[in-house]
Design brief:
The complex is a heterodimer. By secondary structure, chain A is an alpha/beta fold. Chain A is built from ten helices and 25 strands. In chain A, strand 14 and strand 15 form a beta hairpin. In chain A, helix 1 runs parallel beside helix 7. Chain B is flat and about 80 Å long. In chain B, strand 1 and strand 2 form a beta hairpin. In chain B, 60% of the residues lie in helices and 3% in strands. The chains are: A alpha/beta, B mainly alpha.
Amino acid sequence: MENEHIVILGNGISGVSVARHIRKLSDKKITIVSGESDYFFSRTALMYVYMGHMKFEHTQPYEAYFWKKNRIELKKGWVSEVQTAQKVLIFEDGTTLKYDRLVIATGSKPNKFGWPGQDLKGVTGMYHKQELEAIEAYAPNNQICKRAVIVGGGLIGIELAEMMSSRKIPVTFLVRESSFWNGVLPAGESEMINRHIFNHHIDLRLNTNLKEITSDENGRVKSVILQETGEEIPCGLVGLTAGVSPNIDVFKDSEIETKRGVLVNRFLETNIESVYAIGDCAEQHEGIGERRPIEAVWYTGRMMGETLAQTICDNRIAYKPGHWFNSAKFFDIEYQTYGWVFSKPREGEAHFHWKHADDTKCVTVCYDSSSRRFLGINTFGIRMRHQVFDTWLNERRDVDYVIENLCDANFDPEFFKHFESDIISAFKNEAQVEAA
Amino acid sequence: MSIQQSMSLATPDAPALSTVQKIGVSQSVVGLVILLLATFNVNFPNKTLFLCLALGLISLGVIVFSRDAYLKKLPGIKNDGVWFRSSTSRGVLGWATGIFLTAFYIVLYFYPAYLGLGDNAPNTGLVALFDPLSQLLSGRPASQWFVYGTLYTVLILVFGYKFILKYRHNRYEQIRTVSVMFFQLGFAYLIPEFMYRMNSTLPYYDLKNVWPLNYYFFDDWSIQGFLANGNIGLAFIFFGVFSTFVITPVLTYKFGKRWYCSWVCGCGGLAETAGDSYRQLSSKTMVAWNIERWLIHTVLVFSIVMTTGVIYSYLGTDSAQSWFTKGVFISFVIGFLSVVFAATMIFKHKELGKDAKFGAIGFGLTIAALLVLFFTGTTNEVFFIKSTTVRTAYGFYIGSIFSGVIGTGLYPLLGNRSWCRFGCPMAAILGFQQRLFSKFRITTNGGQCISCGNCSTFCEMGIDVRAYAQKGENIIRSSCVGCGICAAVCPRGVLKLENGGMDGRINPTQIPLGNDLALMDLMNLLRTE
């Protein structure tokens, strides 16, 4: 149906990707709804706005004319109710919007685990634009915010720590685990990042849980109290960064089936015809391959959008992501991963770990211990080429081949020092030790 | 959005300078004040001492500042607070610096007497302060150009040092910066002075300054000056022509225009060192890109026509005296341009796409102008006006106003590369070649881009790098000077400057690596067809 109206809830990377690709393929009417911001911006770049590397406008990948030129209508507002039978959205201000097909791309929201004081002023996540504005208000400098406490040792937590230290605000970083992000990273990597965090003068507290957040007389955060020791830490800002979960409260009372997220099949279709869900808020009935049922990652949102646009434009195809990859940055150390490397080798798997003496670069390779098939690589402080690892994974190369040819995958800038020969000799030494 | 505006009363913005940094700034200011006092004719008793003091304090201040700013932190990207500082975000300090620099350039180019340049008399003021150094190097009194060249070189050296510390984790940036420091100090500054000492009749010649950037190279006085010096002069003329027509295209083919713009060039050298703090101020809008393309190519046409006119005016018409007559020369120029144009259209028409039309317009205009020149020109006149007028107009509007007053004076407002981006005819030629006949490209790393925008923000040439990276497409833009900062500031390791094969260099894609292969094929084929 060429003149049907596609309404997309959410102007993040998922919603915008599906809109762009529908426009490439058709002349359907497209409306993107967002309450958060006027235009699409890169959420992952919000930290750089606080740090003064960029202005907010720099986080917007498209200039304002782009939307008009591509006939993508933008509507600002929060939806309060979805009536799937009538195919209508009802907004908080009482207005309504009819759709023919609805794409739910509402993203995530920060987790809160019922801590006492979690809704005080100065307690915030670091996900939405409004949360960044709250951080700017409560922690503009180290005079007004004498210390920030960050709860939860994941990717957003360490970004928030970097943000605070860019304005010289002292940080106490509470991490429940025994080492930073060690549910995901192998021990050698996780411990290296611990040391890097300490080197940035962050008060990293491992094995530490939050008990409660206390308030001053104005309902503003005064301090946090730790579970284990009962220690009270005075602070001006508490960042809650213990992961995110799908932002789908508004659909709970609708006909649309939800669990933790909006449940979708492989075609990203929900239980209601003409209603789809993509990005962080979508939950697969079963994870695809080793992937989790909910993937809150930038590029998976984009890929779901690219895929769903085909389905909406009458080329119904399933969401089939390629090999897993991801990246992040921990203060000054870049991290990339291709294929699967779990924090501990699983049954039948082995890890090879190499770390540079300067304690800012390391590599972990995971392989099948009997067939020696290469399964994945984590790399810190050395950039690697996505294309090459994707090819090697497709070709089911063995670990010896991958280590031997590692320099083909190097993506560091020209003139950078190379470490492949170190890595190769470390790998051979380890093999000899094992043989002996 | 008012995210920088805090609700609090205290100013959250500019990160305060440390005590050591304040000391550094004060040292530089004292050095500058000495120069200002000299400008206002304070007669220093010992010029050598005070000149050393002024240049030394300016340098020392920058060194002290940079060591405190960068060496006390772990190596990594150091852009904290760039958009909060008044000086680097078009604040009051930025505007003040811009106005001061612009005023300096206007005085330098048009009123050198205010700097103390003696008109057949001993120098006074600022220029006189530099006399001892000039005497030491070349054995003659200083000129305003010597003062400018010295300050220019000092700035590239000390801010080059700052840049090397800022990027001490990045060897590409360090080596590139050592290169521009070397070429400025040696080729632009010392060698011409020594050459003068050895042979005072040779025209000033910075060997790395290539036509058409060096627009006065083919001027009558310049060519006559070289010819008057026999073999050495002839060798210089030959080298100049060879640089433009052989060295430049070969190196650009192999490495992209970066070999010149961010490794050798003096304008680029100043932009990359003293101008580094302003790189984020370049406009990334589509409007700016359109202005850039029209403006820079207009300057290119202007410079070709002007140079041809200048050479034309001093050539003879009598083939008995010399075979190289006005007629031969114009035919040669038109023939050369036609060959370049035809070859581009035949071999690269597809890559040019709709830009081919604009290329044809530019070519047509140039040829038309040259024909008009030929049929109307006399010994003294081209285009019915005195040939020297065309040359003077170019020197005034392009050589002085555009490259100096606007290009450098407005660093703190338009960014550090506005001359290179909007005006430099050399950059236009190198860019044309980089776009069509070069192995250089910036590769994007599969599907890793998160569209954060650091690359675009810190691109001094105003290229929207992210627009390519988020689609997984190589960046091949004529304006890219290969400074490498996009790759440095990328938090996810997405960008890499590379020289590789010509096949698949330009790879327009819609869907980057990572998704269903069949879908990628489907969408990416759709685009290429």
